Amino acid sequence: MAGVTMGVFAIGVFATLFAGVSKGGFGSGAAFAGASILALAVPPGQALGIMLPLLMLIDVVTLRPYWRQWSWPDARLLVLGGVPGVLLGAAFYRVADADLLRLLIGFISIGFVAWQVGARAGLIGALRPLPVWGGALAGLVAGFTSFVSHAGGPPAAVYLLSRKLTKTQFQATTVLVFWLVNIAKAVPYGFLGIFTAQTLLFDLALAPFAVVGAWLGVKAHQIVPERMFFSITYLLLCVTGAKLIWDALS
Questions:
Q1: Which letter does DSSP use for residue 243 in this model?
Q2: Under 8 Å CB-to-CB from 58, ≥6 apart: which residues?
């Protein structure tokens, strides 16, 4: 992008690496922190436009390591719900201004952390397997939140966690689901002008970091304790979420 400072580029590198590691190894749940971080430096709509091609690149890199290790019935159900959710997100985006998007991204960030902390503290009971309609609803919400803030991971995780998948099944299923959902998002993003020539040039500069982040995430899936990674993620999401809410209201 024209006028990109070293500070903005550094934030973009950090956000891209973080998203790559999260999507590559930890189920996409925290990958939307990349958009939250980037929205601290550029307008929210621009942050979304920058992040989507990078997320799609990460999807391609991570598909092969998890190929056919997913739960196809669960993935199909989430995608069937997710496409209408993407359309709802596109309709919402047309009427939302920058501060409304900051508020939404900020509240989703903090709400996600609150849900995770509540689950770990036992305040939220163990999930029972959700029925088919629950999976379709989770997909709808995931498609909507994915479109407006790249935050489809948490609602999809609620459904997938209830299915008692293995660690790698869970990871592989999220990779497949959001590869397809992100492809569906690309068309309305183009029509709404969220992509621009400038954002795509910025993406070219950040693309190597997306590949590196995805590769690190796949390796980390095997060796890094999830508790450590997500503890850092939760702190980061709280700080960025609070900052976005403050910016929107001030």
A1: H
A2: 19, 20, 23, 24, 31, 210, 211, 213, 214
Which of 131-135, 206-210, 237-241 has the lowest average pLDDT?
Answer: 237-241
Query: Which residue is listed with tokens 């996409």?
Result: 28
> Which long-range contacts (C-beta less than 8 Å, at least 24 apart) are formed by 110-114?
110/237, 110/238, 110/241, 110/242, 110/245, 112/29, 112/151, 112/154, 112/237, 113/234, 113/237, 113/238, 113/241
**Using one digit for the tens of pLDDT, what is the confidence trace for 47-67?**
888 999 999 999 898 888 889
35 Cα distance to chain centroid: 8
pTM over 0.90: no
- 84-114 pLDDT tens trace: 999 999 998 888 776 777 787 678 768 777 8
Q: For residue 28, is it left (φ>0), alpha (ψ between -120 and 50) or beta? A: left
Q: Residue 212: what pLDDT?
A: 92
